[in-house]
């Protein structure tokens, strides 16, 4: 397909020639015979993406019979900063997400129907110019919520229903074709908590424990050993990365499902009924780089501890779990499966309690990004250093958790865990 010089110039705003060529390949697969105009713009705000650069590509052109054509894509590309790529092993993250779209989505959708994911077009996983091309969900009126406001009850119920469908799809696949589910295990890798990932993420997690402890001390004040909440967090931080990793990995086989792995506000796009911001009607999940096979409670606790208004979560905790489990049960019942035998409401409570330390640890990593004011949001590609340790140290300096909002949210989450007895066995 011939491209005009101005179209070629516009494409050069994408970070590599291979990605530019891939965009053209996608258009050709859509039966385009000519491109009249291409516009490339940033696809996210500063700080919205830690492990990737996002671009939006809008194109107008022609189909075979001179019909007008229009398309819009999101291009997700590896970061430029070497230390940033190294600390997160970005090529492996892109390979994980590629495998999710290429292998996992078709398998899970076969029996349960569409999941809350964007349409996948193409990817590059060469370790140098890693990229994915996905449909632009903003063209369907999906949009990000304001991460700093926190999600209300309606938004939470929509997200939990979509998570329930994702998790139920694994149980349905196990029931219909257990061998097909087993074939998914090597297709996704836990990039944070697998035993061979300790060298990469233990320093990062340890740094986040230290920052969270400073934040909690600023909130509670007084003598650490006279405060049951600080004492509980000290016990958790002393057990550290190894304890959390073991919690994620020790899920009973019968309860293991494909999970999102990174379900927080910035990875959620909402659609609204009649464009009313208080009436979300649908949601799509973004960013499956951290997808893993583990307990459903890992996703639920991660979402509830990072994304709602804190009081919304703590005041409505049981209601939210009821909402999740009702959606989950409905899907299983459609397939003539008994949710009480597979993943009962009581079992959900037990798993949520078991995974609460994981949830609070995740909150210590994510909540600073949620609460940081826009004017203080760090540019990850400007973090100094060329090694993993350099990046961890510089990131910790730039992304301080110690804002009033972060102090309140992390302290409220810790109180929630301790008061409900989730930390009694630490």
Shape summary: globular
Largest sheet: 5 strands, antiparallel
Tell me the series of helices and strands, N- to C-terminal: HHEEEHHEEHHHHEEEEHHHHHHHH
Count of discrete domains = 2
Going by helix content, strand content and strand pairing, the class is alpha+beta
Instruction: Specify Rg, calculated over alpha carbons.
Output: 22 Å
Keywords: ATP-binding, Nucleotide-binding
Domain CHK kinase-like: 132-334
Pfam family, one: EcKL
InterPro entries: CHK_kinase-like, EcKL, Kinase-like_dom_sf, Protein_kinase_ATP_BS
Q: Would you give an account of this structure?
A:
By secondary structure, the chain is of the alpha+beta class. The protein folds into two domains: 5-77, no CATH class; 91-117 and 142-419, Aminoglycoside 3'-phosphotransferase, Chain: A, domain 2 (Alpha-Beta Complex). It has 16 helices and nine strands. It has helices spanning 5-11, 17-29, 82-88, 90-112, 153-176, 178-184, 198-220, 228-249, 296-306, 310-315, 317-334, 339-342, 345-354, 356-371, 388-398, 404-419, and strands spanning 32-42, 53-63, 68-77, 120-124, 131-135, 257-259, 268-272, 280-285, 292-294. The protein has a five-stranded antiparallel beta sheet, with helices on both faces. The radius of gyration is 22 Å and the shape is globular. It comes from Cloeon dipterum.
What's the short version?
This protein is 51% helix and 14% strand. It has helices spanning 5-11, 17-29, 82-88, 90-112, 153-176, 178-184, 198-220, 228-249, 296-306, 310-315, 317-334, 339-342, 345-354, 356-371, 388-398, 404-419, and strands at 32-42, 53-63, 68-77, 120-124, 131-135, 257-259, 268-272, 280-285, 292-294.
